[in-house]
Structure formats: C-alpha cells, structure tokens
Amino acid sequence: MQNALFGGINAAALTPMTQDLAPDLDRFAAHCNWLLANGCNGLGILGTTGEANSFGFDERRAILEGVVARGVPAARLMPGTGCASLGDTVALTRHARDAGCRGVLVLPPFYYKNPSDDGLFAWFSEVVQRVGGGIALYLYHFPQQSAVPFSLALIGRLLRAYPGVIKGVKDSSGDYGNMKAMIDAFAADGFEVYSGSDEYVQRILAEGGAGCITAASNVNCRFGAIVYRERSGAAADAAQTVLNATRKAATSVPLISGLREVFARATGEDGWRTIRPPHLPLDAAQADAVWAAMNAAGALPLPGLGLAKAAE
Q: What is the pLDDT of residues 269-312, one digit of tens each?
C-alpha cells in the first residue's frame, strides 16, 4: 500500500508507571524514542497494551501531552481515543488532533453488547461530525476484548459516508481471513489494514495491507523493520521467523505483564514491572519462562539498553 499514514511497523507501546501507579512520562518518552530509533515507523500509544482503559480521561490527555513535550513526534503517534462514552471519545480525538497527531485508534462503544450496525454507524457518525475533521480515524477491531466487532458491511458504509476520515483498521482478531477480506474490499480505496498479530506481517504487506500495530513490536521491532524493508527473500524470511517466535513467547504468559518483565530485565529498572490492577506482575516461574523464551526467539539483547543478556 502506498502513502499509508502509518505504513510499516508500529508498536502498541507499553506505558511505564511509577510505584504509585501514575504514568512515568520520562520513562515513557524514552521508550517511545527508543522504539522509533530501533525499527518502528510509528507508535500506537494508549491502546490495549498501553492499558488505556486503566487510565482516566485527564490522565490520558496528560500522557499524550507529556510525551510530546518530551520530544516524541506527535505525527508518529496513533493514540487510542475510543471510550464507552461518546463525549470522551470526541474530546480525546480532538485533543490528539490539536496535539499534532495524524490519526487515532478508536474502539467501538464497548459497554453495551450486541449493538446493531445501525447503532454503531450512528455512534461513529456522531464522533466524526463532532470532531470536525483534521484527523484520521482508525477502527479497532478486537472482538475478543471489546465484544463488539466491525462487520465488512459497516466498514463499507462508514467509508462511503466519510471517505478519507475513516482511514483504516487495526485487526487484533487473529483471523487473517478477515484481514484479507478487508484488504480485498477496501484497500483499493486507500483503506489501511494493519495486523495486530506479528505472524502476519510479511503476508499482509505482500497482499496489500499497510503493516502492523503489535504488542511484541516493543521487543521485536528491529526485525519487523527488516520485513518491511525487504518484503521477501532470505533476510525477510529470517526476520519473519523471529517475529513469529517472539509473538509466541510474548503470549506464553499474560501479555502485558510479560513484556514488562522483559524490559525490567533488559534495562535493570524494576519500575517496568509496575502495572495497574487487575493486571498483576508475573510470578517467578512465569518471569523466568518468558525471559528464556525471548532469548530462544532471538529477540535479546535489546540494542542500546545495555543490560540485556542471554539468560544464564
């Protein structure tokens, strides 16, 4: 896909926290800049991996403002702005636009289950009209988490009503058939399809998708960059093998806690383990297991972090 706003490798970035569970903005900005320097084309902040729905409205605004003030380019950020509340979704999307972001990732209204396509179309229509333009909206298809999927019919209807505003989708369903169906139906019109699963990066790029937005890109982004650059051939195939293995390692334990553990060990900074309930840090056996799995996957050491070594 040509001219995708976030084309390439995008990490669904972790949000570091202080011991009192507040966002650690200095560490977060450093992490964002490290990701951008090590293979990421952009960053999905305040998504599922970033624990967006564990933060309040004012905290989410402060997190975006804080990292931009610390030098992270707003144009490289795709904040999650989707809330159960229409008003909060609109306000957070306007805030992201005014901060200089080019796009936002929008969950459907996820509290009320089994909404009709008519109801979802009406909700997104209100978002688009109330925001008033100036920023692209990316749909967040994650039915296992939100329990509110986006049908192909709904996507087509939104694209016809709001061309150039409804710009793409992150598909975290793990169903490649659904991703391919969206590419086949809508990519010719500039609709950007991003995989939420690392194992599909090479395939989705070859078949007309825009790239990925994934949790494991916190660790494997330098290999994703090889796949994005080379697309095919020995180097791309080898890098895709690492993406597959790191995805398997990351999902062998609770995902967010496991990635935090990897960064705690890689940096020597215990604060990476701090996580808001109901999530919990890993127990000792899980922590050792995910570290060993990441080593075996070829993801470690993490460049520039200094302390990451193969497990003893």
A: 999 999 999 999 999 999 999 999 999 999 999 999 854 343 33
Indicate the residue type of 123. W
Asked, for residue 167, whether it belongs to a domain, the answer is yes
CATH code of the domain containing 92: 3.20.20.70
Does 140 qualify as catalytic in the annotation? yes
The continuous run of DSSP H or E covering 166 comes out as strand 166-171
What's the pTM value of the predicted model, to 2 decimals? Answer: 0.96
| 3-class SS of residue 75 | helix
The encoded tokens of residue 40 equal 């990421």
Q: Any catalytic annotation for residue 194?
A: no
Q: Report pLDDT for 306.
A: 54
* Active-site option among 49, 81, 138, 140: 140
The position carrying tokens 């996580």 is 275
Range of the domain at 17: 8-230
Long-range contacts of 285-292 (CB under 8 A, 24+ apart): 286/253, 286/254, 286/257, 286/258, 286/261, 287/261, 289/252, 289/253, 290/249, 290/250, 290/252, 290/253, 290/258, 290/261, 290/262, 291/261, 291/262, 291/265
State yes or no: cis peptide before 301, omega within 30 of 0. yes
Please report the DSSP string for 192-244 in residue order. Answer: EEEESSGGGHHHHHHTT--EEEESTHHHHHHHHHHHHHH-SSHHHHHHHHHHH
Across the range 234-242, mean pLDDT stands at 98
Q: Is 111 a catalytic residue?
A: yes
Among residues 170, 214, 228, 246, the one annotated as catalytic is 170
* The pair of three-digit structure tokens given for residue 95, joined into one six-digit string: 């805030």
Mean of all residue pLDDT scores within the chain = 96
Per the structure, the count of domains in the chain is 1
